[in-house]
Design brief:
The complex is a heterodimer. Helices cover 37% and strands 25% of the residues of chain A. Chain A has helices at residues 45-53, 75-81, 98-103, 110-123, 139-152, 169-184, 196-202, 220-225, 227-234; strands at residues 7-16, 19-29, 34-38, 60-65, 68-69, 83-85, 157-161, 188-192, 205-210, 213-218. In chain A, the strands form two sheets. Chain A has a six-stranded mixed β-sheet with strand order 6-7-8-3-9-10, sandwiched between helices. In chain A, α4 (110-123) packs antiparallel against α5 (139-152). Chain B has helices at residues 2-22, 25-50, 59-76, 80-102, 107-127, 129-132, 146-169, 171-188, 193-219, 224-227, 230-243, 250-266, 270-287, 291-300, and strands at residues 138-139, 221-222. By secondary structure, chain B is mainly α. Chain B has a domain at 27-229. Chain B is globular, with a radius of gyration of 19 Å. In chain B, strands 1-2 form a two-stranded antiparallel sheet. The longest helix of chain B has 27 residues, at 193-219. The chains are: A alpha/beta, B mainly alpha. Chains A and B meet through α2 of A and α8 of B.
Protein backbone atom coordinates (compact mmCIF):
# COMPACT_ATOMS: atom_id res chain seq x y z
CA UNK A 1 0.00 0.00 0.00
CA UNK A 2 1.27 3.43 -0.91
CA UNK A 3 1.27 5.81 2.08
CA UNK A 4 1.15 9.54 1.66
CA UNK A 5 4.56 11.27 1.53
CA UNK A 6 5.52 13.11 4.71
CA UNK A 7 6.72 16.15 2.76
CA UNK A 8 5.52 17.26 -0.64
CA UNK A 9 7.12 20.26 -2.29
CA UNK A 10 5.31 21.07 -5.51
CA UNK A 11 6.39 23.67 -8.02
CA UNK A 12 8.05 25.96 -5.49
CA UNK A 13 9.64 29.09 -6.92
CA UNK A 14 11.56 31.75 -5.03
CA UNK A 15 12.94 34.90 -6.62
CA UNK A 16 15.26 37.52 -5.15
CA UNK A 17 14.88 40.54 -7.41
CA UNK A 18 15.85 39.28 -10.84
CA UNK A 19 17.48 36.09 -9.57
CA UNK A 20 15.37 32.96 -9.48
CA UNK A 21 16.97 31.09 -6.59
CA UNK A 22 14.54 28.16 -6.70
CA UNK A 23 12.66 27.41 -9.90
CA UNK A 24 9.51 25.22 -9.97
CA UNK A 25 11.06 22.70 -7.67
CA UNK A 26 9.19 19.57 -6.64
CA UNK A 27 10.28 16.95 -4.13
CA UNK A 28 8.45 14.19 -2.39
CA UNK A 29 9.80 12.52 0.75
CA UNK A 30 8.51 9.23 2.13
CA UNK A 31 8.52 8.69 5.88
CA UNK A 32 11.50 6.93 7.43
CA UNK A 33 14.08 7.52 4.71
CA UNK A 34 17.22 9.57 4.28
CA UNK A 35 17.35 11.97 1.33
CA UNK A 36 20.25 13.98 0.02
CA UNK A 37 20.04 17.40 -1.61
CA UNK A 38 23.11 18.34 -3.61
CA UNK A 39 24.14 20.89 -6.18
CA UNK A 40 26.91 23.37 -6.91
CA UNK A 41 27.27 26.52 -4.79
CA UNK A 42 24.39 28.90 -5.31
CA UNK A 43 22.11 26.24 -6.75
CA UNK A 44 19.33 27.06 -4.27
CA UNK A 45 19.66 24.29 -1.67
CA UNK A 46 19.57 26.54 1.38
CA UNK A 47 16.86 28.73 -0.14
CA UNK A 48 14.75 25.62 -0.65
CA UNK A 49 15.34 24.68 3.00
CA UNK A 50 14.24 28.17 3.97
CA UNK A 51 11.07 27.89 1.86
CA UNK A 52 10.19 24.61 3.56
CA UNK A 53 10.83 25.90 7.08
CA UNK A 54 9.08 29.24 6.58
CA UNK A 55 12.17 31.43 6.84
CA UNK A 56 11.49 32.58 3.28
CA UNK A 57 8.06 33.02 1.78
CA UNK A 58 7.89 31.09 -1.52
CA UNK A 59 6.62 33.08 -4.52
CA UNK A 60 4.85 30.16 -6.14
CA UNK A 61 4.03 26.56 -5.39
CA UNK A 62 2.96 24.55 -2.39
CA UNK A 63 4.61 22.83 0.54
CA UNK A 64 2.64 20.14 2.34
CA UNK A 65 3.72 18.39 5.52
CA UNK A 66 1.73 15.32 6.55
CA UNK A 67 -0.88 16.42 4.06
CA UNK A 68 -1.37 19.96 5.44
CA UNK A 69 -0.21 23.16 3.77
CA UNK A 70 2.73 24.73 5.60
CA UNK A 71 3.79 27.36 3.08
CA UNK A 72 2.77 30.70 4.53
CA UNK A 73 3.24 29.59 8.13
CA UNK A 74 5.74 31.34 10.36
CA UNK A 75 8.97 29.44 11.09
CA UNK A 76 8.00 28.64 14.69
CA UNK A 77 4.66 27.26 13.51
CA UNK A 78 6.43 25.01 11.00
CA UNK A 79 8.79 23.88 13.75
CA UNK A 80 5.87 23.11 16.06
CA UNK A 81 4.31 20.88 13.41
CA UNK A 82 7.38 18.67 13.55
CA UNK A 83 10.07 19.94 11.21
CA UNK A 84 13.48 20.57 12.75
CA UNK A 85 16.52 22.01 11.04
CA UNK A 86 20.14 22.92 11.53
CA UNK A 87 21.96 25.72 9.77
CA UNK A 88 24.88 25.88 7.38
CA UNK A 89 26.43 28.61 9.50
CA UNK A 90 26.27 27.57 13.15
CA UNK A 91 23.43 29.11 15.09
CA UNK A 92 23.74 28.01 18.69
CA UNK A 93 22.79 30.46 21.45
CA UNK A 94 26.35 31.55 22.35
CA UNK A 95 25.68 33.09 25.78
CA UNK A 96 23.54 30.25 27.01
CA UNK A 97 25.26 27.18 28.38
CA UNK A 98 25.31 23.96 26.39
CA UNK A 99 22.64 22.51 28.66
CA UNK A 100 20.49 25.65 28.44
CA UNK A 101 20.74 25.57 24.66
CA UNK A 102 18.92 22.25 24.73
CA UNK A 103 16.47 22.99 27.54
CA UNK A 104 15.27 26.30 26.17
CA UNK A 105 13.67 24.76 23.09
CA UNK A 106 11.57 22.27 25.08
CA UNK A 107 8.08 22.42 26.54
CA UNK A 108 6.36 20.16 29.01
CA UNK A 109 7.78 18.45 32.09
CA UNK A 110 11.12 19.95 33.06
CA UNK A 111 12.73 16.88 34.61
CA UNK A 112 12.09 14.74 31.55
CA UNK A 113 13.54 17.45 29.32
CA UNK A 114 16.59 17.65 31.52
CA UNK A 115 17.21 13.91 31.48
CA UNK A 116 16.86 13.91 27.71
CA UNK A 117 19.25 16.88 27.39
CA UNK A 118 21.88 15.20 29.56
CA UNK A 119 21.53 11.98 27.61
CA UNK A 120 22.03 13.81 24.30
CA UNK A 121 25.02 15.74 25.62
CA UNK A 122 26.59 12.45 26.72
CA UNK A 123 25.89 11.06 23.29
CA UNK A 124 27.92 13.79 21.57
CA UNK A 125 30.52 13.74 24.38
CA UNK A 126 29.68 17.24 25.54
CA UNK A 127 28.42 16.20 28.99
CA UNK A 128 31.51 17.53 30.74
CA UNK A 129 30.97 20.90 29.07
CA UNK A 130 27.27 21.20 29.86
CA UNK A 131 27.71 24.34 31.96
CA UNK A 132 30.08 25.97 29.50
CA UNK A 133 28.75 28.82 27.37
CA UNK A 134 28.07 27.51 23.90
CA UNK A 135 30.08 30.36 22.38
CA UNK A 136 33.20 29.02 24.11
CA UNK A 137 32.93 25.58 22.49
CA UNK A 138 34.98 24.68 19.43
CA UNK A 139 33.45 24.83 15.97
CA UNK A 140 32.90 21.08 15.81
CA UNK A 141 31.42 20.99 19.31
CA UNK A 142 28.98 23.77 18.43
CA UNK A 143 28.01 21.85 15.34
CA UNK A 144 27.22 18.79 17.45
CA UNK A 145 25.35 20.90 19.97
CA UNK A 146 23.19 22.30 17.20
CA UNK A 147 22.57 18.78 15.95
CA UNK A 148 21.34 17.52 19.31
CA UNK A 149 19.36 20.70 19.94
CA UNK A 150 17.19 19.88 16.95
CA UNK A 151 16.58 16.43 18.44
CA UNK A 152 15.26 17.97 21.67
CA UNK A 153 12.04 18.98 19.95
CA UNK A 154 11.58 15.44 18.63
CA UNK A 155 10.82 16.43 15.03
CA UNK A 156 9.45 13.93 12.51
CA UNK A 157 11.32 15.52 9.63
CA UNK A 158 14.86 16.81 10.10
CA UNK A 159 16.61 19.08 7.63
CA UNK A 160 20.38 19.11 8.07
CA UNK A 161 22.38 21.80 6.31
CA UNK A 162 25.95 20.50 5.93
CA UNK A 163 26.09 18.49 9.15
CA UNK A 164 29.54 17.04 8.41
CA UNK A 165 31.42 20.26 7.66
CA UNK A 166 34.09 20.87 10.29
CA UNK A 167 33.43 17.74 12.33
CA UNK A 168 36.52 15.61 12.95
CA UNK A 169 36.67 12.17 11.29
CA UNK A 170 36.18 10.11 14.47
CA UNK A 171 33.17 12.11 15.53
CA UNK A 172 31.91 12.15 11.96
CA UNK A 173 31.44 8.37 12.00
CA UNK A 174 29.39 8.65 15.17
CA UNK A 175 27.38 11.46 13.66
CA UNK A 176 26.63 9.39 10.58
CA UNK A 177 25.66 6.45 12.77
CA UNK A 178 23.37 8.78 14.70
CA UNK A 179 21.67 9.95 11.53
CA UNK A 180 21.09 6.37 10.43
CA UNK A 181 19.83 5.61 13.93
CA UNK A 182 17.27 8.40 13.65
CA UNK A 183 16.08 6.98 10.36
CA UNK A 184 15.67 3.58 12.02
CA UNK A 185 13.45 5.25 14.63
CA UNK A 186 11.19 6.34 11.80
CA UNK A 187 12.42 9.90 11.30
CA UNK A 188 12.70 11.34 7.83
CA UNK A 189 15.90 13.20 7.05
CA UNK A 190 16.88 15.57 4.26
CA UNK A 191 20.58 16.43 4.10
CA UNK A 192 22.40 19.15 2.22
CA UNK A 193 26.04 18.13 2.09
CA UNK A 194 29.06 18.92 -0.04
CA UNK A 195 31.01 15.87 1.07
CA UNK A 196 29.97 13.43 -1.63
CA UNK A 197 31.19 10.39 0.26
CA UNK A 198 28.96 11.30 3.17
CA UNK A 199 25.89 12.11 1.15
CA UNK A 200 26.23 9.15 -1.22
CA UNK A 201 26.82 6.80 1.69
CA UNK A 202 23.81 7.94 3.70
CA UNK A 203 21.09 8.77 1.25
CA UNK A 204 18.63 6.41 -0.30
CA UNK A 205 17.49 9.02 -2.79
CA UNK A 206 19.32 12.11 -3.95
CA UNK A 207 17.92 15.29 -5.48
CA UNK A 208 20.24 17.45 -7.55
CA UNK A 209 19.67 21.18 -7.94
CA UNK A 210 21.32 23.41 -10.50
CA UNK A 211 20.41 27.08 -10.93
CA UNK A 212 17.39 26.49 -8.75
CA UNK A 213 15.99 23.68 -10.84
CA UNK A 214 15.84 20.02 -9.97
CA UNK A 215 17.88 18.34 -12.69
CA UNK A 216 18.01 14.81 -11.36
CA UNK A 217 16.54 12.49 -8.74
CA UNK A 218 17.43 8.93 -7.92
CA UNK A 219 19.58 6.50 -5.92
CA UNK A 220 23.28 7.44 -5.49
CA UNK A 221 24.54 5.05 -8.16
CA UNK A 222 22.26 6.49 -10.80
CA UNK A 223 23.04 10.10 -9.82
CA UNK A 224 26.79 9.52 -10.05
CA UNK A 225 26.40 8.34 -13.65
CA UNK A 226 23.93 11.06 -14.69
CA UNK A 227 25.29 13.18 -17.51
CA UNK A 228 23.43 16.34 -16.48
CA UNK A 229 24.76 16.09 -12.93
CA UNK A 230 28.32 15.67 -14.10
CA UNK A 231 27.86 18.65 -16.38
CA UNK A 232 26.46 20.77 -13.56
CA UNK A 233 29.47 20.02 -11.39
CA UNK A 234 32.30 19.93 -13.89
CA UNK A 235 31.03 21.84 -16.88
CA UNK A 236 30.56 20.55 -20.33
CA UNK B 1 29.00 31.50 49.15
CA UNK B 2 25.47 31.42 47.82
CA UNK B 3 24.09 31.06 51.34
CA UNK B 4 26.20 34.00 52.57
CA UNK B 5 24.89 36.08 49.68
CA UNK B 6 21.29 35.22 50.50
CA UNK B 7 21.76 36.06 54.16
CA UNK B 8 23.49 39.33 53.25
CA UNK B 9 20.67 40.22 50.89
CA UNK B 10 18.05 39.48 53.53
CA UNK B 11 19.88 41.64 56.09
CA UNK B 12 20.20 44.45 53.55
CA UNK B 13 16.50 44.34 52.66
CA UNK B 14 15.59 44.29 56.35
CA UNK B 15 17.83 47.29 56.97
CA UNK B 16 16.30 49.16 54.05
CA UNK B 17 12.82 48.38 55.34
CA UNK B 18 13.69 49.92 58.74
CA UNK B 19 15.70 52.81 57.32
CA UNK B 20 12.87 55.41 57.16
CA UNK B 21 12.27 55.08 60.91
CA UNK B 22 15.69 56.50 61.67
CA UNK B 23 16.66 58.54 58.63
CA UNK B 24 16.47 62.25 57.92
CA UNK B 25 14.17 63.65 55.27
CA UNK B 26 17.16 64.07 52.99
CA UNK B 27 18.24 60.48 53.52
CA UNK B 28 14.82 59.15 52.62
CA UNK B 29 14.55 61.27 49.48
CA UNK B 30 18.05 60.26 48.45
CA UNK B 31 17.20 56.59 48.85
CA UNK B 32 13.88 56.79 47.06
CA UNK B 33 15.60 58.36 44.07
CA UNK B 34 18.23 55.66 44.22
CA UNK B 35 15.48 53.01 44.09
CA UNK B 36 13.93 54.83 41.16
CA UNK B 37 17.16 54.58 39.19
CA UNK B 38 17.58 50.92 40.08
CA UNK B 39 14.03 50.29 38.83
CA UNK B 40 14.63 52.22 35.59
CA UNK B 41 18.04 50.71 34.81
CA UNK B 42 16.72 47.22 35.55
CA UNK B 43 13.63 47.77 33.37
CA UNK B 44 15.87 48.78 30.49
CA UNK B 45 17.92 45.66 31.17
CA UNK B 46 14.84 43.46 30.65
CA UNK B 47 14.27 44.50 27.06
CA UNK B 48 17.75 45.63 26.03
CA UNK B 49 20.14 43.58 28.16
CA UNK B 50 18.23 40.30 28.17
CA UNK B 51 16.13 40.38 25.00
CA UNK B 52 18.68 42.40 23.04
CA UNK B 53 16.42 45.13 21.65
CA UNK B 54 18.23 48.33 22.58
CA UNK B 55 15.70 51.01 23.46
CA UNK B 56 16.73 54.67 23.27
CA UNK B 57 13.35 55.94 24.31
CA UNK B 58 12.50 54.14 27.50
CA UNK B 59 11.79 57.43 29.23
CA UNK B 60 8.63 57.58 27.10
CA UNK B 61 7.10 55.01 29.47
CA UNK B 62 8.30 56.95 32.49
CA UNK B 63 6.77 60.17 31.15
CA UNK B 64 3.54 58.47 30.11
CA UNK B 65 3.19 57.01 33.60
CA UNK B 66 3.95 60.38 35.17
CA UNK B 67 1.29 62.14 33.10
CA UNK B 68 -1.32 59.41 33.43
CA UNK B 69 -0.89 59.46 37.21
CA UNK B 70 -0.71 63.25 37.23
CA UNK B 71 -3.99 63.68 35.37
CA UNK B 72 -5.74 61.13 37.57
CA UNK B 73 -4.52 62.79 40.76
CA UNK B 74 -5.03 66.43 39.82
CA UNK B 75 -8.27 66.34 37.81
CA UNK B 76 -9.94 63.15 39.02
CA UNK B 77 -8.85 63.24 42.64
CA UNK B 78 -7.30 59.77 42.70
CA UNK B 79 -4.95 58.74 45.47
CA UNK B 80 -1.37 58.61 44.18
CA UNK B 81 -0.96 54.86 44.78
CA UNK B 82 -3.70 53.63 42.40
CA UNK B 83 -2.83 56.54 40.11
CA UNK B 84 0.79 55.34 39.83
CA UNK B 85 -0.36 51.79 39.13
CA UNK B 86 -2.62 53.24 36.44
CA UNK B 87 0.48 55.03 35.16
CA UNK B 88 2.07 51.60 34.79
CA UNK B 89 -0.99 50.35 32.91
CA UNK B 90 -0.85 53.39 30.61
CA UNK B 91 2.80 52.61 29.86
CA UNK B 92 1.85 48.99 29.12
CA UNK B 93 -0.86 50.11 26.69
CA UNK B 94 1.63 52.39 24.95
CA UNK B 95 4.12 49.50 24.78
CA UNK B 96 1.50 47.24 23.19
CA UNK B 97 0.55 49.86 20.60
CA UNK B 98 4.09 50.82 19.70
CA UNK B 99 5.72 47.43 20.21
CA UNK B 100 3.72 45.72 17.54
CA UNK B 101 5.14 47.80 14.66
CA UNK B 102 8.49 48.80 16.19
CA UNK B 103 9.67 45.36 17.31
CA UNK B 104 9.76 44.30 13.67
CA UNK B 105 12.71 46.65 13.32
CA UNK B 106 16.14 45.44 14.29
CA UNK B 107 19.29 46.93 15.79
CA UNK B 108 19.77 50.67 15.30
CA UNK B 109 16.41 51.03 13.54
CA UNK B 110 14.55 49.90 16.63
CA UNK B 111 16.69 52.13 18.84
CA UNK B 112 15.91 55.16 16.69
CA UNK B 113 12.20 54.40 16.47
CA UNK B 114 12.10 54.45 20.27
CA UNK B 115 13.96 57.74 20.33
CA UNK B 116 11.31 59.08 17.97
CA UNK B 117 8.51 57.72 20.15
CA UNK B 118 9.73 59.78 23.07
CA UNK B 119 9.88 62.97 21.01
CA UNK B 120 6.35 62.33 19.71
CA UNK B 121 5.03 61.72 23.23
CA UNK B 122 6.62 64.93 24.49
CA UNK B 123 5.08 66.96 21.67
CA UNK B 124 1.66 65.34 22.11
CA UNK B 125 1.66 66.02 25.83
CA UNK B 126 2.63 69.66 25.19
CA UNK B 127 -0.06 70.00 22.56
CA UNK B 128 -3.08 68.73 24.50
CA UNK B 129 -3.03 71.55 26.99
CA UNK B 130 -6.56 71.05 28.26
CA UNK B 131 -5.67 67.61 29.56
CA UNK B 132 -2.02 67.99 30.49
CA UNK B 133 -1.51 71.64 31.24
CA UNK B 134 0.76 71.81 28.19
CA UNK B 135 4.03 73.61 28.63
CA UNK B 136 3.06 74.99 32.02
CA UNK B 137 2.94 71.49 33.46
CA UNK B 138 0.91 69.85 36.22
CA UNK B 139 1.17 70.64 39.93
CA UNK B 140 0.33 68.09 42.58
CA UNK B 141 -1.14 68.61 46.04
CA UNK B 142 1.85 68.78 48.32
CA UNK B 143 1.22 66.90 51.53
CA UNK B 144 4.52 65.12 52.13
CA UNK B 145 4.51 61.37 51.45
CA UNK B 146 8.22 60.63 51.20
CA UNK B 147 8.14 57.59 53.47
CA UNK B 148 5.31 55.93 51.56
CA UNK B 149 6.95 56.78 48.23
CA UNK B 150 10.20 55.35 49.59
CA UNK B 151 8.50 51.99 50.09
CA UNK B 152 6.69 52.17 46.76
CA UNK B 153 9.94 52.89 44.89
CA UNK B 154 11.71 50.11 46.80
CA UNK B 155 8.96 47.64 45.85
CA UNK B 156 9.19 48.71 42.20
CA UNK B 157 12.95 48.16 42.15
CA UNK B 158 12.53 44.80 43.88
CA UNK B 159 9.77 43.67 41.52
CA UNK B 160 11.69 44.38 38.32
CA UNK B 161 14.88 42.84 39.72
CA UNK B 162 12.82 39.78 40.61
CA UNK B 163 11.58 39.67 37.01
CA UNK B 164 15.17 39.81 35.75
CA UNK B 165 16.13 36.97 38.09
CA UNK B 166 13.20 34.89 36.87
CA UNK B 167 14.09 35.44 33.21
CA UNK B 168 17.69 34.47 33.77
CA UNK B 169 17.06 31.37 35.82
CA UNK B 170 13.93 29.74 34.43
CA UNK B 171 13.50 27.72 31.27
CA UNK B 172 10.58 29.95 30.31
CA UNK B 173 12.68 33.06 30.89
CA UNK B 174 15.57 31.77 28.80
CA UNK B 175 13.27 31.88 25.78
CA UNK B 176 13.43 35.70 26.02
CA UNK B 177 17.21 35.49 25.87
CA UNK B 178 17.21 33.35 22.72
CA UNK B 179 15.90 36.45 20.92
CA UNK B 180 19.07 38.32 21.82
CA UNK B 181 21.20 35.28 21.05
CA UNK B 182 19.81 34.33 17.65
CA UNK B 183 16.30 35.23 16.65
CA UNK B 184 16.31 33.12 13.48
CA UNK B 185 17.47 29.99 15.30
CA UNK B 186 14.91 30.60 18.06
CA UNK B 187 12.12 30.74 15.47
CA UNK B 188 13.40 27.64 13.73
CA UNK B 189 13.34 25.84 17.08
CA UNK B 190 9.66 26.63 17.57
CA UNK B 191 9.91 29.71 19.79
CA UNK B 192 7.33 32.36 18.89
CA UNK B 193 9.79 35.24 19.00
CA UNK B 194 7.26 37.96 18.12
CA UNK B 195 5.18 37.06 21.17
CA UNK B 196 8.14 36.83 23.55
CA UNK B 197 9.57 40.11 22.29
CA UNK B 198 6.29 41.91 22.87
CA UNK B 199 6.04 40.25 26.29
CA UNK B 200 9.50 41.46 27.31
CA UNK B 201 8.76 44.93 25.97
CA UNK B 202 5.50 45.23 27.89
CA UNK B 203 7.17 43.90 31.02
CA UNK B 204 9.95 46.46 30.66
CA UNK B 205 7.42 49.30 30.27
CA UNK B 206 5.24 48.63 33.31
CA UNK B 207 7.62 49.56 36.12
CA UNK B 208 8.92 52.76 34.45
CA UNK B 209 5.25 53.81 34.17
CA UNK B 210 4.64 53.17 37.86
CA UNK B 211 7.88 54.84 38.85
CA UNK B 212 7.00 57.84 36.66
CA UNK B 213 3.79 58.27 38.64
CA UNK B 214 5.67 58.02 41.93
CA UNK B 215 8.29 60.48 40.73
CA UNK B 216 5.56 62.95 39.73
CA UNK B 217 3.96 62.73 43.16
CA UNK B 218 7.33 63.04 44.86
CA UNK B 219 8.54 66.14 43.01
CA UNK B 220 5.04 67.67 43.03
CA UNK B 221 5.41 69.21 39.59
CA UNK B 222 5.91 67.76 36.10
CA UNK B 223 6.26 69.32 32.68
CA UNK B 224 6.90 67.73 29.28
CA UNK B 225 10.62 68.46 29.20
CA UNK B 226 11.20 67.13 32.71
CA UNK B 227 9.58 63.69 32.35
CA UNK B 228 10.24 63.04 28.65
CA UNK B 229 13.91 64.02 29.01
CA UNK B 230 16.38 62.14 26.84
CA UNK B 231 18.93 62.36 29.66
CA UNK B 232 16.78 60.00 31.73
CA UNK B 233 17.01 57.33 29.02
CA UNK B 234 20.73 57.89 28.69
CA UNK B 235 21.23 57.68 32.44
CA UNK B 236 19.39 54.37 32.75
CA UNK B 237 21.34 52.94 29.82
CA UNK B 238 24.68 54.06 31.25
CA UNK B 239 23.82 52.66 34.68
CA UNK B 240 22.89 49.27 33.22
CA UNK B 241 25.94 49.17 30.95
CA UNK B 242 28.27 50.27 33.73
CA UNK B 243 27.14 47.55 36.11
CA UNK B 244 26.71 44.90 33.40
CA UNK B 245 23.69 44.39 31.17
CA UNK B 246 22.28 40.92 30.86
CA UNK B 247 23.00 40.11 34.51
CA UNK B 248 20.68 40.32 37.53
CA UNK B 249 22.76 42.60 39.74
CA UNK B 250 24.63 44.63 37.12
CA UNK B 251 21.96 47.32 36.70
CA UNK B 252 21.56 47.51 40.49
CA UNK B 253 25.31 47.95 40.99
CA UNK B 254 25.49 50.49 38.15
CA UNK B 255 22.58 52.53 39.46
CA UNK B 256 23.91 52.56 43.03
CA UNK B 257 27.48 53.43 42.04
CA UNK B 258 26.63 56.18 39.59
CA UNK B 259 23.86 57.70 41.67
CA UNK B 260 26.02 57.90 44.78
CA UNK B 261 28.85 59.30 42.69
CA UNK B 262 26.50 61.87 41.21
CA UNK B 263 25.33 62.95 44.64
CA UNK B 264 28.91 63.30 45.88
CA UNK B 265 30.23 65.22 42.92
CA UNK B 266 27.19 67.00 41.57
CA UNK B 267 26.38 69.13 44.63
CA UNK B 268 29.84 70.65 44.53
CA UNK B 269 30.86 70.75 40.88
CA UNK B 270 27.88 70.82 38.54
CA UNK B 271 29.79 70.91 35.26
CA UNK B 272 32.49 68.60 36.42
CA UNK B 273 29.80 65.98 37.00
CA UNK B 274 28.71 66.15 33.37
CA UNK B 275 32.31 65.75 32.21
CA UNK B 276 32.77 62.82 34.58
CA UNK B 277 29.56 61.21 33.35
CA UNK B 278 30.69 61.58 29.73
CA UNK B 279 34.08 60.12 30.60
CA UNK B 280 32.42 57.13 32.26
CA UNK B 281 30.38 56.45 29.13
CA UNK B 282 33.52 56.50 26.98
CA UNK B 283 35.51 54.30 29.35
CA UNK B 284 32.73 51.73 29.68
CA UNK B 285 32.13 51.50 25.94
CA UNK B 286 35.82 51.26 25.11
CA UNK B 287 37.27 49.20 27.91
CA UNK B 288 34.48 47.09 29.30
CA UNK B 289 31.48 46.93 27.03
CA UNK B 290 30.09 44.17 29.25
CA UNK B 291 30.20 46.32 32.39
CA UNK B 292 31.74 45.54 35.78
CA UNK B 293 29.83 42.34 36.44
CA UNK B 294 30.03 41.30 32.79
CA UNK B 295 33.82 41.43 32.97
CA UNK B 296 33.94 39.59 36.29
CA UNK B 297 31.48 37.03 35.00
CA UNK B 298 33.62 36.23 31.97
CA UNK B 299 36.94 36.25 33.74
CA UNK B 300 35.89 34.10 36.67
CA UNK B 301 33.28 32.06 34.88
CA UNK B 302 30.44 33.20 37.09
CA UNK B 303 26.77 32.46 36.42
CA UNK B 304 24.56 35.22 35.04
CA UNK B 305 22.68 35.32 38.34
CA UNK B 306 25.38 37.63 39.71
Amino acid sequence: MQTRPILEVSGVTKRFGGVTAVNRCSLSLARGKIYGLIGPNGSGKTTLFNCITGLERRDEGEVRFKGGRIDGLKPHQVARRGIGRTFQIIRVFPELTALENLLVVTQGPFEAARRRAEELLRFVTLDRLQNEYAGNLSYGQQKLLEFVRVLMTDPELILLDEPAAGVNPTLLNELLAAITGLRDQGKTILIVEHDMKVVMGLSETIFVLDYGEKIAEGPPGVIQADARVIEAYFGR
Amino acid sequence: MKRAFQVGLAVLLFGLALYPTMASGYGIRFMLQLFMWVALAQSWNLISGLTGYVSFGHVAFFGTGAYAAGILVTTHGWHWVPASLAGGVAAVILALLIGYPCLRLKGPYFAISMLGLNEVMRVLVSYFEGLTGGGSGLSFPTQPASVQIYYAMALSALAVTGAAYFIITSRFGLKFMTIREDEVAAEAMGIDTARYKLGAFVLSAFVPGVVGGLFARDTGYIEPISVFALIITITMIVMALFGGKGTVWGPVLGAVTLFVLQELVWARFLFFYQILFGAIIVVVVLLMPRGILGVLQQRYHLPRTI
